[in-house]
């Protein structure tokens, strides 16, 4: 089923990419975008991927939309849901793209109406860039989108699944709890490590900042890309996925200590064994087509 009218709230990297992709792949006939930033609205109008843009409440758009997707920072989802839900038409679907699910569902739940079904979602696709200019239609192609529905929303989940598949994604269904621990492992803690490592390099008294920039080796450069990700979004992610993040961080510290010990005791066998195991994981990711560092990954052009 094609969505007749789609409303995106938050027309930044992910919201503008959904709007572009929904149009490019014929997954919505009319796409409206609402964003509370005047600069973002001006950019969205200029880029021309939406049929209407509003900086205000957008009651008129909400009343027409069959599907409303919240694409604002995780910490803003509750406020935005509170404002839009009263204006939505009966039977419409509400979704989101927040990088954590448990806290977003808790923030949206108090504002729900019986005749509006909320199916939370998370496209596992992105870049370190933000804003409407950074989006592109192909970003979701061959990437996973996780949906974390409740039992009542089976029909709506199927509609949303078809929508995301139409944008080129594979769809996985899981519980919010499972999502949050899996993503803490594969996305959140890796970002925390990148933020830490880049900070450590800059704080090293024995190496100047100039040298860090000048002699930035490939591995470090990859970390700086991740550590350039949006500060507001990532503050919200860590504060709202605290438990899962802390659980993975504890394991990481233990494993780092074990490798540190192997280096101290010149235990080359432990190091080799560990590095061979991690190289295998990398090969699996590449074989599964999930390596976004491959040139032109997910893009047709
Ligand atoms: N960046 C990624 O790689 C990525 C990937 C998957 C999911 N996500 C999730 O997508 C969401 C958006 O992230 P993004 O990277 O697109 O951020 P972004 O900063 O590029 O875009 C967010 C947009 O929301 C607008 N906004 C903020 N508060 C608002 C409000 N109260 N009302 C209306 N508009 C508001 C901002 O002006 C901005 O244009 C986040 O919840 C994030 O967790 C991000
Ligand atoms: O490729 C990147 O830059 C990303 O960090 C994207 C990434 C990820 O960790 O894979 C970041 C946050 C999301 O919620 C989903 C995707």
UniProtKB/TrEMBL annotation:
**Biological process per Gene Ontology, one example term:** tyrosine biosynthetic process
Q: What Enzyme Commission number(s) apply to this enzyme?
A: 1.3.1.12
Query: Which Pfam families does the entry link to?
Result: PDH_C (PF20463), PDH_N (PF02153)
Q: Which UniProt keywords apply?
A: Amino-acid biosynthesis, Aromatic amino acid biosynthesis, NAD, Oxidoreductase, Tyrosine biosynthesis
Keyword Oxidoreductase in record:
yes
Signal peptide region = none
Q: InterPro entries this protein is in?
A: 6-PGluconate_DH-like_C_sf, NAD(P)-bd_dom_sf, PDH_C, PDH_N, Preph/Arog_dehydrog, Prephen_DH
Could you tell me which pathway this protein works in? Amino-acid biosynthesis; L-tyrosine biosynthesis; (4-hydroxyphenyl)pyruvate from prephenate (NAD(+) route): step 1/1
Q: Which reaction does it catalyse?
A: prephenate + NAD(+) = 3-(4-hydroxyphenyl)pyruvate + CO2 + NADH
Q: Which residue range or ranges hold the Prephenate/arogenate dehydrogenase domain?
A: 4-293
Which enzyme type, at the first EC level? oxidoreductase
Q: Which SUPFAM superfamilies does the record match to this protein?
A: 6-phosphogluconate dehydrogenase C-terminal domain-like, NAD(P)-binding Rossmann-fold domains
Tell me the GO molecular function terms.
Answer: NAD+ binding; prephenate dehydrogenase (NAD+) activity; prephenate dehydrogenase (NADP+) activity
Query: Membrane spanning segments where?
Result: none
Family assignment from sequence similarity: Belongs to the prephenate/arogenate dehydrogenase family.
User: Per its UniProt record, what PANTHER family does this chain match?
Assistant: PREPHENATE DEHYDROGENASE, PREPHENATE DEHYDROGENASE [NADP(+)]
- The protein's name is prephenate dehydrogenase
Q: Which organism is it from?
A: Litorimonas taeanensis
């Amino acid at each position: 089923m094609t969505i007749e009218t789609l409303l995106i709230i938050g027309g930044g990297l992910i919201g503008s990419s959904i709007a572009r992709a929904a149009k490019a792949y014929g997954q919505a006939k009319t796409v409206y975008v609402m964003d509370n930033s005047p600069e973002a609205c001006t950019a969205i109008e200029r880029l021309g991927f939406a049929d209407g843009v509003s900086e205000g409440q957008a009651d008129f758009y909400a009343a027409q939309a069959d599907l409303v997707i919240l694409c604002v920072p995780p910490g803003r989802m509750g406020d935005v849901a509170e404002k839009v839900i009263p204006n939505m038409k009966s039977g419409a679907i509400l979704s989101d793209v927040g990088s954590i699910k448990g806290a977003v569902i808790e923030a949206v739940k108090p504002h729900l109406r019986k005749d509006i079904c909320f199916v939370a979602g998370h496209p596992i696709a992105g870049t370190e860039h933000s804003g409407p200019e950074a989006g592109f239609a192909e970003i979701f192609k061959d990437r996973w989108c996780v949906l974390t529905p409740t039992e009542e929303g089976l029909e709506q989940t199927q509609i949303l699944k078809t929508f995301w598949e139409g944008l080129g994604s594979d769809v996985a269904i899981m519980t919010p709890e499972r999502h949050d621990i899996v993503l803490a492992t594969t996305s959140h803690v890796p970002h925390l490590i990148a933020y830490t490592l880049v900070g450590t390099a800059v704080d090293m008294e024995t190496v100047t900042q100039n040298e860090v920039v000048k002699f930035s080796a490939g591995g470090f450069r990859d970390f700086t890309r991740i550590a350039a990700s949006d500060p507001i979004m990532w503050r919200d992610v860590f504060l709202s996925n605290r438990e899962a993040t802390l659980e993975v961080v504890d394991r990481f510290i233990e494993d780092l200590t074990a490798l540190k010990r192997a280096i101290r005791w010149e235990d080359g066998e432990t190091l080799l064994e560990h590095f061979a195991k991690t190289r295998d994981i990398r090969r699996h990711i590449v074989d599964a087509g999930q390596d976004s560092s491959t040139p032109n990954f997910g893009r047709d052009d």
